[in-house]
Amino acid sequence: MEEAVDDGVAEQRERLMESLRTYGGHYTELGRRFAARLGLHSTDATAVLEIAAAEERGTPLSPARLSERISLSTGATTALLNRLEAAGHVTRTREHSDRRVITLRSGAHIQERADEFFDPLARRLDTAMSHYPPRLLEQFEAFMADLNATMDTHLAEPDAPAPNSPATPGGGTP
């Protein structure tokens, strides 16, 4: 078990977690609105955004990796991809030397619609972030990487609550 730290860290953690929960709520609402703009279910829109973002990073997703990213079973992901492909929102290609490997690509119109929808927010975020020194933002990036690694480790533990399981014992939150 890890050693407990107490010098106001718990109180600060609570404040930071509340801010992150608020941000998460805003992020979810933004995704819901983007889905409505495309006429898609929010899960389908989330998948399209994950596929487009991975392409933009130069690391296109496979169906299995998409399934992990959006927390769906492989069967549900296949049904989702069938819907998105039929609507022309994504394509499945075999670009790898191993022809069994499937690569997901977004339709050109998806990136255009995403840019149109998210660019105004990106400009606002750039403006907000420009008020902070680059070194502070680098520290924040490192902090977020540490938080995400900690959460990944916790979720990988065998006794961590799994999807569709009851809430955290005792009703507590992180």
Textual characterization of the structure:
It is a single chain. The chain has 174 residues and is mainly alpha-helical. It has a domain at 20-131: Winged helix-like DNA-binding domain superfamily/Winged helix DNA-binding domain (Arc Repressor Mutant, subunit A), CATH 1.10.10.10. Helix content is 64%, strand content 5%. It has helices at residues 9-38, 42-57, 63-70, 74-86, 108-129, 134-156; strands at residues 90-93, 103-106. Strands 1-2 form a two-stranded antiparallel sheet. The two termini are 16 Å apart. Residues 168-173 have low confidence and may be disordered.
Please describe the structure with a list of short key phrases separated by commas or semicolons.
globular; Arc Repressor Mutant, subunit A; 174 residues; mainly alpha; two-stranded antiparallel ribbon; disordered C terminus
Read across the widest sheet, the strand sequence of neighbours is 1-2
Low-confidence stretches: 168-173
Number of strands: 2
User: How are helices and strands ordered from N to C?
Assistant: HHHHEEHH
What count of helical segments does DSSP give?
6
CATH class of the domain at 20-131: Mainly Alpha
Q: How much helix is in the residues?
A: 55-70%
Please compute the radius of gyration using only Cα atoms. Answer: 19 Å
Q: Report the CATH architecture of the domain at 20-131.
A: Orthogonal Bundle
Q: Report the major sheet.
A: 2 strands, antiparallel
Which fold name fills CATH's third level, the topology of the domain at 20-131?
Arc Repressor Mutant, subunit A
Mean pLDDT: 88
